[in-house]
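[Q] Does anyone have a clean structure-token version of this?
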Amino acid sequence: MTNPQLYTLLAAGALTLGCSSRFHPVTSGGPVTTPAGSTQPNLISIPPTGVIRISADDLLAQFQADADAADRVFRDRTVEVTGKVVYVGKTKTGKPVVTFGEVGRVLSPHVECYFQASDNPKVLVGERCTIRGQCMGKSMGVGAWVNDCVVLPNPEPD
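[A] Here you go.
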């Protein structure tokens, strides 16, 4: 093991062990390769209370890296998920659903955002948007689902 690899491994361990009770380790950005060759997401910290603002890609990376750990961190938390919409439709019971992630494969990684049956989310496939709702945890083991959603207005450009 070279010195840079050892320092990276030691720093990652120190971050994991040294996290205060005020923050939970979660990922941000793309995955990184550890010296042992396994793929792990980058670590960031989130506050234990309040809204979690996260990209759909980062939320998916969390659930793909360790669905049970991500479920413990995100379940029952209010999240604002930002990403590119890949599906807009309705469930069999008539609830609108907007999906971020991959589509076209069975059990593809995704974030499913469910709205009240009376809502009509005005988003289009391919559009980038932010949706706020209550994270309900892992979805069929390949992503997350968010309930009681609302589409947030896009910020005005500077």
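[Q] Thanks! Anything notable?
[A] The first helix runs from residue 3 to 18.
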